[in-house]
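Incident log, structure service

09:12 report received: a user says their structure output differs between two submissions of the same chain.
09:20 pulled the input from the user's history:
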Amino acid sequence: MTPFFALLRKELFALGVSPFVYVLLAVWFSLNALLFNISIDTQYIQADLSLLPPYLFGSGMLVWLLLPIFPPLLCLRMFAEEHRVSTLEPLLTAPITDSAVVLAKYFAACLFFLVFWGGLLFFFLLLDMHGATLDWARIIGGFVGSCLLSFLFIATSLFASSWGGNLVLAAGGGAAINYCMLFLPALFQYDDSVLGEVSRNSHLPNLISNGFAAALIDSYAVMYLVLLSSLFLFLTYLRLVSRRWIP
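09:34 re-ran on a clean worker, output below:
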């Protein structure tokens, strides 16, 4: 087994046996269930269930308020905790490249975060089992878009986690970056200037609710999310490399 897959398996196992992660899952599923029930009870969604995927996967509270918080909490132990308990330096001196370390931790967090969104798919399955007419193209599209957005937030969270062993700063820094990426474009999206055009093209909830959750897989949105995730992974790699000179 290559060092990359060995580290990936180790990180997945660590996430799978962590009590803190299961607390996060319990809170996430509880809040998901609450928001799902509130959404179902609204008259305009009862009249047209096709409005439910864009709301839950893009324009609702789930993305605006909850999603920026959970990836930083999930990624706390990836770098910040290892730095705090002094296990990061032995890992970086092991026979594995810094890029492989970053990617193994990133893919482990991404794979595990699929469980978070899988719970929301389960709610839609319950609706389908009770005879509701659902637009599964919108649901699957919204699921894919929300996963890509989550993967971006995981990349920013890893970057924040790589700066030191302070868990509060790691979680707060990752959440701050995520909220800025959500709210800053929203402040200028109605401006008629070039700034407004850039803001509209980078407004993450709109990319999800008006694209993926509307069953429109936009290549621009996919590339934007993937490239932005790659940028933060590269910055995380640079931070790890710089630790050899700047502790």
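09:41 both user submissions now match this output. Likely a transient worker issue. Closing.
09:42 reviewer note: The chain is about 80% helix and 0% strand. The chain has a mean pLDDT of 84.
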